[in-house]
């Protein structure tokens, strides 16, 4: 799933920058992106993504702390 999303984003980015040759299309895409960034759905997605990253960092910190305190390789998350 992550690979597929990265691939789609890569193609979208390539298309976006590739359209610079066609100024009109480039400006149309920019207008659409500005509208998207101002939408509530985009804000919700950004907030959710930040929450997931924060949770992942917290869990990774817990694993490192556990290993540093002698927990070793037998760590299993109770969450």
Helix count, DSSP H or I runs of 4 or more residues = 3
Sheet with the most strands, sense and barrel status: none
Residues in helix, %: over 70%
Which structural class best describes the helix and strand composition?
A: mainly alpha
Shape: elongated
- Mean pLDDT over the full residue set: 84
Terminal residue distance: 23 Å
What is the total tally of β strands?
Answer: 0
What is the number of domains?
2
In percent, how much strand structure appears in the residues? under 5%
The value of Rg in angstroms is 20 Å
Low-confidence stretches: none
The SSE order reads: HHH
In short:
The protein contains three helices and no strands. It has 79 residues and is mainly alpha-helical. The mean pLDDT is 84.
Task: Draw up the topology in text.
Blueprint: H1 2-18, H2 23-37, H3 40-68
How would you explain this protein's 3D organization?
This protein is an all-alpha fold and 79 residues long. It folds into 2 domains: 1-38; 40-72. Helix content is 77%, strand content 0%. The chain contains 3 helices and no strands. The protein has helices spanning 2-18, 23-37, 40-68. The protein is elongated, with a radius of gyration of 20 Å. The model has no long low-confidence stretch (mean pLDDT 84).
């Amino acid at each position: 799933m992550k690979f597929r999303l990265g691939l789609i984003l890569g193609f979208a980015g390539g298309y976006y920058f590739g359209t610079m040759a066609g100024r009109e299309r480039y400006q149309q895409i920019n207008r659409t992106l500005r509208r998207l960034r101002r939408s509530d759905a985009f804000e919700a997605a950004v907030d959710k993504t930040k929450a997931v990253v924060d949770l992942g960092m917290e869990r990774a910190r817990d694993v490192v702390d556990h290993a540093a305190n002698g927990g070793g390789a037998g760590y299993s998350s109770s969450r």
